[in-house]
Write a structure and sequence with these properties.
The complex is a heterodimer of chains A (about 170) and B (about 290). By secondary structure, chain A is mainly α. In chain A, helix 2 (about 35-45) runs antiparallel to helix 3 (about 50-65). Chain A has helices at about 5-25, 35-45, 50-65, 75-85, 95-120, 130, 135-165. With about 290 residues, chain B is an alpha+beta fold. Chain B has two domains: about 70-110; about 120-290, Thrombin, subunit H. Chain B is built from five helices and twelve strands. Chain B has helices at about 1-5, 10-30, 35-70, 75-105, 285-290, and strands at about 120-125, 135-140, 150-155, 155-165, 170-175, 180-185, 190-195, 205-210, 220-225, 235-245, 250-255, 265-270. In chain B, the strands form two sheets. A six-stranded antiparallel β-barrel of chain B has the order 1-2-5-4-3-12. The longest helix of chain B has about 35 residues, at about 35-70. Chain B starts with a helix and ends with a helix. Classes of the chains: A mainly alpha (about 170), B alpha+beta (about 290).
């Protein structure tokens, strides 16, 4: 494991701690930012495929660990998000903060809707996607607000490490 | 073959990373949650940090509120004294009622079969970030006697059940979760039903309430008890949006939970209660029992 990968995982751990404590401290019901999704988006847009997919798996695994949902739900979704965003990568730009926020908002909505669909299959009694759209919207908005900060942290990390570490990044 | 694998190394690797967790998800989605060794190691790393952050921030907030509160402490003290006196009078009346109740029970040769229940106060240190994770993390674990499936309560009512417990920490699945269902009884009509989570923080869904039960807006629902479920008689929430149908067996309604889940700082874990299974009460299980 390269130093860069270890640091990305450390960022993921920090993100999982922040996203688990901040909503509790500020009594947020639905507006909970999915910071780990932002990390996956960054990886999909910047990393080499094998490395990015493996790190996305790690980010999804951490999401699973803090959510007590059925095992591996967010792990599957994280890798799937990585693949989809990677395939659409040439059409997506995240140079500025607003662009990052828009991409994160859309990705969060799709990601959460997919989670709702999978949840529906696991718990057939639940009322599915429609009833949960409002919390999904607020969560996507919070994710969009937080995404530029996550992107900025990872960009700085890459700017400092890539030349020395020699990790292959797609830019 | 080797050159073919080398050529398609990336898609094969990514497909594996997708397929492996999906297989685990599909195989274990309906089974009780458990922690692997790696889960426990990461939890041992992150949970103390979460605890330190929450305790630190709450400590600073408490200190500030304490300072602000000092300014009105005299008026507060007088008000509290009055409340204590009122509370003592109420307690005396309650003791009288309890004594009468005990005497009547003895007269009716009623055997109280409820086992002595112990409560463990636990601090909430984190919540699930995703809108689909209706979970709280508490700073108590198996070392404190917390077991999977143990009911978790707040002073206002039912919170949820322990979904998965580590040595010093545990995750509580809230009753709001779509995978949760709690057998309920109406305080007024004594009609039985099931309160099911739909993933919404403000309401749950009422299921299997018989149309003949005369359920009304504002009726208080209590836990129905029974082996493997929550102890009997705990508030779950109030019935709203009752939809009386001319046909069919059941009445449709929503339930506003008694507990405000976004403002839980401490909860109580029921230790003396023996759960039926390690996971949260499953909706399909409850449905099948009816």
């Amino acid at each position: 494991m390269t130093l860069r990968n270890a640091l990305v995982i450390a960022v993921c751990l920090a993100a999982s701690i922040v996203e688990a404590t901040v909503p509790h401290l500020f009594h947020l019901r639905a507006a909970r930012a999915d910071l780990l999704l932002s990390v996956v988006l960054y990886l999909a847009l910047n990393d080499e495929v094998v490395q990015g997919a493996a790190l996305s798996l790690a980010a999804g695994y951490l999401s699973d660990l803090t959510s007590a949902t059925p095992p591996c739900l967010y792990t599957v979704l994280a890798v799937l998000t990585f693949v989809v965003v990677r395939l659409a990568g040439s059409a997506i730009k995240t140079d500025g903060g607003i662009q990052s926020a828009v991409v994160a908002f859309a990705a969060s909505l799709i990601h959460s809707s997919l989670a709702a669909v999978l949840f529906y299959f696991v718990a057939p009694g639940s009322q599915g996607v429609l009833l949960q759209f409002v919390p999904l919207f607020w969560s996507a908005l919070a994710t969009a607000i937080a995404a530029p900060a996550v992107f900025s942290v990872l960009r700085r990390l890459d700017a400092k490490l890539v030349p020395a570490d020699g990790a292959t990044l797609v830019r | 073959m080797r050159s073919l694998l080398r050529r398609y190394r990336e898609p094969v690797f990514v497909a594996f990373l997708l397929a492996a967790p999906f297989a685990i998800f599909a195989a274990r989605a309906r089974k009780p949650m458990s922690h692997t060794l790696l889960d426990r190691a990461i939890l041992a790393l992150t949970a103390p940090v979460e605890k330190a952050i929450v305790l630190g921030v709450n400590g600073v907030a408490d200190a500030w509120h304490g300072y602000v509160a000092l300014r009105g402490v005299r008026e507060e003290n007088l008000r509290l004294r009055r409340e204590v006196l009122r509370g003592q009078a109420q307690a005396a009346a309650m003791a009288e009622v309890k004594g009468e109740n005990d005497r009547l029970k003895r007269l009716l040769e009623y055997a109280d079969r409820t086992s002595p229940t112990r409560y463990l106060v636990a601090e909430v240190i984190a919540v699930g970030a995703s809108p689909h994770s209706h979970v709280l993390r508490i700073a108590r674990g198996t070392a404190d006697g917390v077991a999977q499936g143990a009911p978790v309560l707040a002073p206002e009512g039912v919170v949820g059940q322990i979904a998965v417990a580590a040595t010093h920490y545990a995750d509580v699945q809230l009753i709001l979760s779509p995978t949760s269902a709690v057998p309920a009884v109406s305080q007024r009509t004594r009609g039985r039903s099931t309160v099911k989570g739909v993933g919404d923080f403000t309401r749950c869904k009422l299921e299997y309430a018989l149309r003949t039960d005369d359920l009304q807006e504002g009726d208080l629902l209590l836990t129905a008890g029974g082996p493997g479920f929550f102890p009997k008689g705990l508030p779950i929430g109030r019935v709203v949006n009752v939809q009386k149908r001319p046909t069919g067996m059941f009445t449709a309604a929503d339930v506003v939970p008694a507990v405000n889940f976004s403002r839980l700082d401490e909860v109580m874990v029921v230790l003396g209660h023996v759960p039926a299974g390690p996971s949260v009460v499953n909706a399909s299980t409850v449905g099948a029992q009816r």
